[in-house]
Amino acid sequence: MSLLHDRSKDPLWKDEFSVFTSDERYVTRRQFAKFLTLASLGMFVGNLWIVLKSYLTKKLVYPPAEVATLGEIPVRGVKLFSYPLPQDNCIMVRTGEDEYVAYSQKCTHLSCAVYYSARDNRLECPCHQGFFSIKDGSVLQGPPPRPLPQIVLEREGGKLIATGVKVGGNG
Amino acid sequence: MHGYEFYVDPSRCIGCQSCVNACAECETHRGQSMINFDFIDRGSTTATAAYVCWHCDEPTCAMACPADAIKKGDDGIVQSSLKPRCIGCSNCVLACPFGIPKIFPELEQMMKCDMCYDRTSIGKRPMCATVCPSQALSYVHPEEIARRREKPTNVFYFGKQKITTLVHMMTPAETDAVSLDVLDYMWEGTYVAAARSE
Amino acid sequence: MAEVPVSPDILIDRFGPHPAYTPPGGWQDESRNPAERLVKTHCCFCGQQCGIQLKVRGNQVIGFEPWEEFPFNHGMLCPKGVKRYMQGGHSDRLLDPLLRTPEGFRTASWDEALNFTVKRLKEVQDKYGKDSVAIYGGASLISEKSYLLGKFARVALGTRHIDYNGRLCMVSAGTAYKLAFGVDRSPLPWSDIPKAQVVLVAGANVAECAPITTDYLWRCRDAGGKLIVVDPRMTPICRNADMYLPVRPGTDLALYMGLLHVILRDGLERRDFISKYTTGFAQVAESVRPWDPRTAGEKTGVPPEAIERAAQLFAKADRAIALHARGVEHQSKGVENCLALINLCLATGNLGREGAGCAMITGQGNGQGGREHGQKCDQLPGQRSISDPEARAHTAKVWGITPDEIPQAGYSAVEIMEAIHRGEIKALLSCCFNPLVSLPDAKFTQEALEKLEFFGVVDFFMSETAHHADVVLAGSLQEEEEGIGCTNEGRVIHIRKAVDPPGNAKGDSWIYVELAKRLGKGKYFPYNSTKEIYEELREASRGGHADDFGITYEKIDKNMGIFWPCPTLDHPGTPRLFEDGRSFHPDGKHHFVVTPWRESGDPVSGEFPIYLTTGRVVSQYLSGTQTRRIGALLDQYPNPRLEIHPRLAEQYQLNDGDWVTITSRRNEITLQAMVVKTIRPDTVFIPYHWAGKRSANRLTHRTLDPRSKIPEFKVSACQLRKADAPPDWATAANSDTTKGGGKANARLRVLR
User: Fold this and answer.
1) A82 and A12 within one domain
2) What is the CATH number of the domain that holds B169?
3) Structure confidence at residue A156 (pLDDT)
4) Nearest by CB to B30, which of C27, C246, C748?
5) The pTM is what?
6) C677 near C246, Cβ under 8 Å?
7) A63 and A120 share one domain
8) Whether the predicted pLDDT of B180 surpasses 80
9) pLDDT in the model for residue C59
10) Using a CB-CB distance cutoff of 8 angstroms, which residues of chain B are in contact with residue A14?
11) Is pLDDT at A6 greater than 70 in this prediction?
């Protein structure tokens, strides 16, 4: 029926407020609600995909870099280094005779540089009193929301090599 | 729809108002009938006519509606006014050349026949055409109508406005003048009508 | 005494009629709360017996749905059928038996009510004899119940007086057809009507009284058929009539004899058919000799040329059908009128072939079945005669009694009322009948009812007649018992049970079986269901004309009804009678019967110069007990109006809507005038569906056709007088003018 009349002769109001449901261009609440639902669903799916991906990818592998030699630093000693990129400051601590741990030095709260407190055997951030565990970098106290990323160390012929970054938990 | 067409033939109407009563049964308009039923002039004749909405191709009621509340779908049915939009202004009542829409002031709503959309959209027949004992209202395939002597038409002229409709009106095959007074048939020694003094 | 205990207004206030507008349970959303089941059954009202489906939720009928597959009406319905479902849950519905008290009625237990009924019936019979008790039945009862009533009267009570409201309906046609053909049934199925070339509709307001037949007539015209209508009023079908003959009330006989005269004069009769299949032609031919068109025209007020033309039209057609209804039958010459129409069909060879014949349009729902199985004063099941020794023997065997124990014929319906009036009959037990509204001369009926020593009524609403009862037994609606009926075509159909009777109301059949038990005749009524009654009915009707032996409920369901006679289970039924040319008479011939002229019983003369005819409107049914309780139907035509031609109205300075008092030799009533050109100027018309001071039957008279005993409702004499003031029953709400016509869409009701 709507094909029968000549659109060009119609005044504007007839076209804007067409009586034929097939010519309607405005959006009904139902259509809008559908759109919102689909968009929301799309975003949810997208997010889900991202989460799944990050969950499946725990290790980020970078080219290994030499950090130090065994015995270079004393027990309860600290060495600062950069890994994987020059701007990524990290801190290595010799926690025992033969135990070495390394973490990113960027506090997960507001990126201040954390230091090692030998007295309390933990990593501390001076900005807001955020403390991290020396064992796994998890947050002991304070505003930091996430554990410190741990640098994976491997020994190779008397040297300590950084081979990867372990982001704690599920990010 | 579904191959059926709606035909209205007032010459067959016997005034039983079965259509009026059956239409009123619908839950959508509970107890209110959407049939327009008239005694043409009971003083002179038993002629009656029952009309449904004609579902015009370009519905005047919809064009005149300030709230954009009346819509015509792709299947050709002009729906009754949308409840959230209708403001009860009666523009459509005044605009319709056939006088079909009815205003219900206590509801501030216009209601009219929607050809029993809940039935016709799934291939059933509208209630009025199903119950009509004289089939003055019929909803059949066009081949069945071809058996009648009357011919269907769906073009109407109202002044300068030409209206084409979904519903067809049956027009007589011949148009002899028919006398409506019993006196013209009666005989008391001579034809009574002729003997009447002027 | 059966005087009304308190003023009728108090009873009406308590028991109705109150108009109902909303379905039981309200207008509920079908989509959220759909009906639980659809029951395929038939309408409870007229003889067309349209197929309809009832929507049922729980134990209530809540709506309807068309039944498009049923071949008679293909889903079509009239407004009464559309609204019938409003009866079941109606607030006026009688839910308990009622016993009369000085203040009105009180509810009683079934034991008390039934024992009281039996006690009083026995007392009356012991004191005055067996025939001092009469039974009234009705033609809306399923065949099982009409059979049960016939047996109850004769076996349980031993009275010869049983008759039914069909005495006011089909008996003229029945008597005529039995005289001519030996059997009382429409000889043709309705599907023959569209195949005719000419249909003569005589005294039948098809549009208002048998609306679905309109479609058959229109289809006949679509195929080129011609329609001739004979009626003192221009009813709605007249608008499409090829010929309209406005016959003077009571003069139809002259018209049909005039038609036959023309046919014989012009040699248009079918000689071979007459000589081969009929007897009695010569006498009839002789009897119509004086009725030339001019003589007939003077008698009837129909132009001689019209008589000539109608006769030519009818006789020259290869296939013609004559349909007739109460217009010709409700006369003291009712039998003669029907015989004259039959003579026309026999003379023109219109019988026993497709598209040709003569048929009565049965009025009531089971008017056909109700006049077959013994509910009539002179009838035994199977359309047998109570005086026929073979019939008595067969029936007695089925009933388990000796033939001598079956009484002889008793009084017919009006005669029963007359016998009550003169004190011969002292007790009455009535079902499915509202004589105070339906019988002629309402004042006489009221006097008679007040003389009854015991009056029991079985009904589902408190009718106006029931106001006089000593006990009212709360009975069942049509949708509350299963059974068979027979439609106007002779098609036996299945009435399905949709719901149980509400409250403490019981099925009518249970009531009569209980009464029989308490009368000590329980062993003759060993029925636990109507189906068991039907099994006995099949046997009882076997071998009779109305042979239902080969019909079972399942066979009906499979075949959409079976036409009787159906003598064996594998017989397909008999839609068209006389196809082999044989009648049901012993000689196998159709009989021409002479129809001598006589005047009507209430002559129009002197003080009473105007013909009064009574009839119906499409929105009401019979005495209105059911339809005056349905709001939408009542709004369509709220009060009886006096239809009067402008020429006559002018003589009495009457305008449309003025109040006018109509007086007959019996009584007077005051109604509003409806000034219309669609009625003869020497005739007025009143529909009879209302009671009391609005009852048209206050004016009618008790002249009966001598053979059929049908009252002459269609021809009375009256006078008119403009009323000074509206009658006391009229309120502002009641008065309306013709201009608005029906009150379609007039009243706006708030939606839920």
Assistant:
1) no
2) 3.30.70.20
3) 86
4) C27
5) 0.85
6) no
7) yes
8) no
9) 92
10) 63
11) no
Task: Flag whether residue B62 sits within 8 Å of chain A, measured between CB atoms.
Answer: yes
On average, the pLDDT of chain B sits at: 88
C contact residues 210-239, partner B, Cβ 8 Å cutoff: 211-212, 214-215, 218, 221-223, 234-239
B101-143 per-position pLDDT tens digit: 999 999 899 999 999 999 999 999 999 999 999 999 999 999 9
Q: How far is A35 from chain B (nearest CA, A)?
A: 22
The mean per-residue pLDDT over the stretch B80-96 comes to: 94
Above 50 in pLDDT, residue A1? Answer: no
B74 to chain A: which residues are within 8 Å by CB? 20-22
Instruction: Give pLDDT, residue C752.
Output: 23
Which of residues A13 and C238 earns the better pLDDT score?
Answer: C238
Chains A, B in contact: 3+ Cβ pairs under 8 A? yes
Based on the domain organization, do A90 and A74 belong to the same domain? yes
> Under CATH, to which class is C8-87 assigned?
alpha beta
> Is A12 within a domain?
yes
Which of C246, C679, C751 lies closest to B107 in CB terms?
Answer: C751
Nearest-Cα distance to chain B for A32, in Å, is 17
Class of domain C171-360: alpha beta
Burial class of residue C742 in the structure, from the number of CB atoms within 10 Å of its CB (0-12 exposed, 13-18 middle, 19+ buried): buried
Nearest to C82 among B31, B43, B131 (CB): B131
A76 and A133, same domain (yes or no): yes
Domain residue ranges in chain C: 8-87, 109-168+368-563, 171-360, 610-740
Given pLDDT bands bounded at 50, 70 and 90, which one contains residue B193?
A: low
Domain annotation covers residue A86: yes
CA C467 to CA C464: how far, in whole Å? Answer: 5
Query: Are residues A160 and A99 part of one domain?
Result: yes
CATH topology of domain C610-740: Barwin-like endoglucanases (2.40.40)
Domain count of the fold of chain A: 2
pLDDT level of residue B194 (50, 70, 90 thresholds): low
B18 vs C79, C223, C647: nearest CB: C79
Domain that includes residue B174, residue range: 5-195
A136 within some domain: yes
Q: Are C300 and C251 in contact (CB under 8 A)?
A: yes
User: Exposure string (b/e) for C13-27, b if CB count within 10 Å is 16 or more?
Assistant: eebbbebbeebbeeb
CA distance B79 to chain A (A): 10
Q: Is there a single domain that holds both residue A98 and residue A142?
A: yes
The CATH number of C109-168+368-563 is 3.40.50.740
> Mind listing the pLDDT tens digit for each residue in B26-37?
888 888 999 999
Cα–Cα distance measured from residue B77 to residue B113, given in angstroms and rounded to the nearest whole number = 10
User: For position A105, what pLDDT does the model report?
Assistant: 93
CATH number, residue A152: 2.102.10.10
Reported in sequence order, the residue ranges of chain B that DSSP labels E, i.e. its strands, are: 5-8, 36-39, 48-51, 102-104, 109-111, 137-140, 151-158, 161-171
- pLDDT for residue C737: 46
Q: What is the pLDDT of residues A15-69, one digit of tens each?
A: 888 889 888 777 788 989 999 999 999 999 999 999 999 888 766 567 888 888 8
* Boundaries of domain holding A37: 7-56
Q: Is the same domain home to A78 and A11?
A: no
Residue whose structure tokens are 């001369």 = C441
Q: Do C76 and B132 touch (CB under 8 A)?
A: yes
Task: Give the pairing of strands C162-164 and C133-137.
Answer: parallel
Which chains have 3 or more CB–CB distances shorter than 8 Å to chain A? B
Counting as low any pLDDT under 50, the low residues of chain C are 737-752
Q: Does C38 touch chain B (CB under 8 A)?
A: no
How far apart are the C-alpha atoms of B158 and B54, rounded to whole Å? 14
Contact C433, C164 (CB under 8 A): yes
* Cβ-Cβ contacts under 8 Å for C247 (sequence gap 6 or more): C230, C231, C232, C255, C300, C301, C302
B134 touches chain C (CB under 8 A): yes
In a domain, A155, yes or no: yes
Same domain, A64 and A140: yes
- CB-based touch A/C (3+ pairs, under 8 A): no
Candidates A20, A24, A25, A27, partner chain B, best to mutate (most B CBs within 10 A):
A20
With an 8 Å Cβ cutoff, is B103 touching chain A?
A: no
Of B42, B107, B148, the CB nearest to C741: B42
3-state secondary structure of A11: coil
